[in-house]
Write a structure and sequence with these properties.
The complex is a heterodimer. By secondary structure, chain A is mainly beta. Helices cover about 0% and strands about 50% of the residues of chain A. Chain A contains no helices and 8 strands. Chain A has a 4-stranded antiparallel beta sheet, with no helix packed on it. Chain A has a 4-stranded antiparallel beta sheet with strand order 5-4-2-7, with no helix packed on it. The N and C termini of chain A lie close together (about 10 Å). Chain B is an alpha+beta fold. Chain B has 2 domains: about 170 residues, no CATH class; about 140 residues, Cyclophilin-like (Cyclophilin, Beta Barrel). In chain B, strand 6 and strand 7 form a beta hairpin. The mean pLDDT of chain B is about 95. Classes of the chains: A mainly beta, B alpha+beta. Chains A and B meet through loops of A and loops of B. Chain B: This is Allophanate hydrolase. Chain B: Keywords: ATP-binding, Hydrolase, Nucleotide-binding. Chain B: One of its GO terms (molecular function) is ATP binding. Chain B: InterPro entries: CT_A_B, Cyclophilin-like_dom_sf, PxpC.
């Protein structure tokens, strides 16, 4: 299991836009470096990426939820 | 010499003590948001207090130096790395040509500062090297750093001081709960007594809507006195006929979510300013991370001036 951690505070969004599909869903196979969401702070959106390949097990933060540096956003089971 | 920026960080900008004397034409004073931390970084590398530093918000840059350099990182607690090796914040660091500086995750606060001996040597615009990004003015081409930028560093102006570390007792704290001293006014008469009581008693929580322009706090609504809409003012009770905004003034558009205007704020507008943060506490506001619980405490002008004198004592302890 690998945790995807937010390096910065802000609002976590799972979609690139309100009427767009989520970057990734629970159960999806994801690649290393794949974007799983964005965090907005100071009117800037920073992409949150998985460092490992595997299956996205679960999100620990809701869409539009607040995150702080070090907070786990999602968990990936490797392989 | 220069720093070569490999990754820019979230919003890394060149800042100094600020650009004074142009607020009347809408150009804010700008400058490092946490002036004390920036000043301490300069002190460690033998600069003057007026030299420019790099201000990093949340995510710092990754850069290499093209020559030997002396740097110091101060401000929000963060892991500083030189060629991947963790180094100490609040102390003088020596870099060899080609060394790479990078940063880990913040463990509190919002901003940290990188000073380099000789100072960041961008041109002075209207008497300051500070970046005013909204106005595309100052700093490096009037903007925050980008990957591929070359940040020029000036020639050392003097020798290195004896002090190579800021004593812990002098370092600012990065608390999750802060009390910010304010002076009511100029438009506090527009709030009802209950409205003012709410401002002064509520636990305000800093939202993520916080940057160099202003910081927005979540909490209860404030109640305004009824009024006849004056000619030239907006229809909301929080609107006034346009007036100048003081640095640190607190406006409450619609009575919801007070905003503390900070160093890159506009110089005027049509919202009633119910209070102003005293100058000694502007750095404390700057250090607050989203989620920080904040209480506003009213003080008199005498108390505000005494607090300013106390802050000057800390600076003297660093600069001698």
């Amino acid at each position: 299991m690998a945790d995807i951690v937010s390096p910065l505070p802000g609002i976590f969004y799972r979609k690139p836009g309100p009427d767009k599909d989520p970057y990734a869903n629970e159960g999806d196979a994801i690649e290393a470096g794949q974007t799983i969401g964005v965090v907005e702070i100071m009117k800037q959106f920073s992409e949150i990426r998985s460092e490992v390949a595997g299956t996205l097990q679960s999100f620990a933060v809701e869409d539009s939820g607040t995150v702080n540096p070090g907070d786990v956003i999602a968990t990936v089971s490797e392989g | 010499m220069a720093f070569d920026i490999l990754e820019p960080g979230l919003a890394t900008s060149v800042q100094d003590q600020g650009r004074f004397g142009h607020y009347n034409v809408g150009i804010p004073q700008g400058g490092a948001m946490d002036q004390l931390s920036a000043s301490m970084a300069n002190a460690l590398v033998g600069n003057t207090p007026g030299d420019a530093v790099l201000e990093c918000a949340y995510l710092g840059p990754r850069f290499t130096t093209d020559a030997d350099a002396v740097i110091a990182v101060t401000g929000a607690p963060v892991e500083v790395r030189v060629n991947g090796t963790p180094m100490t914040e609040w102390s003088r660091l020596t870099l060899a040509a080609g060394d790479e500086v990078s940063f880990g995750m913040l463990s509190g606060g919002t901003r940290y500062y990188i000073a380099v001996q000789g100072g960041v040597d961008v041109p002075e615009i209207l008497g300051s090297r500070s970046t005013y990004a909204l106005g595309a003015l100052g700093g490096l081409q009037g903007r925050t750093l980008k990957a591929g930028d070359t940040v020029p560093v000036g020639a050392p102006s003097g020798s290195l001081p004896t002090m190579d570390e800021i004593p812990e007792v002098l370092r600012p704290v990065y608390a999750k709960e802060v009390t910010i001293r304010i002076m009511p006014g100029l438009y506090d008469h527009r709030l009802t007594a209950e409205g003012m009581e709410t401002l002064l008693s509520a636990a305000w929580k800093l939202t993520p809507v916080a940057d160099r322009t202003g910081l927005r706090y979540a909490g209860p609504d404030l109640e305004w006195k009824p009024r006849t809409q004056p000619f030239g003012a907006g229809s909301d009770p929080s609107n006034i006929v346009d007036a100048g905004y003081a640095i640190g003034s607190i406006q409450v558009p619609g009575g919801k979510e007070p905003i503390v205007l900070h160093r890159d704020a506009v110089s005027g507008g049509g919202y009633a300013m119910v209070a102003t943060v005293i100058s000694a506490d502007m750095d404390v506001v700057a250090r607050s991370a989203p989620g920080t619980l904040t209480y506003f405490e009213p003080v008199t002008m005498e108390q505000a001036l005494a607090a300013r004198a106390d802050a000057a004592k800390v600076r003297r302890a660093v600069w001698g």
